[in-house]
Amino acid sequence: FLQIDRHGSVNVSKLSARPHVTAGAGGFVDITARAKKIVFSGFFTAGAKLSLADGGIRIDGEGKVKKVVGEVEHISFSGKRAVAQGQDITYVTERCVMKLTPDGLMVTELAPGIDLQRDVLAQAEIPLAVANDLKVTPDALYRDRPIGLSLNGGASLGGAHG
Question: Can you give the residue range of the structural domain that contains 156?
Answer without folding.
Answer: 3-161
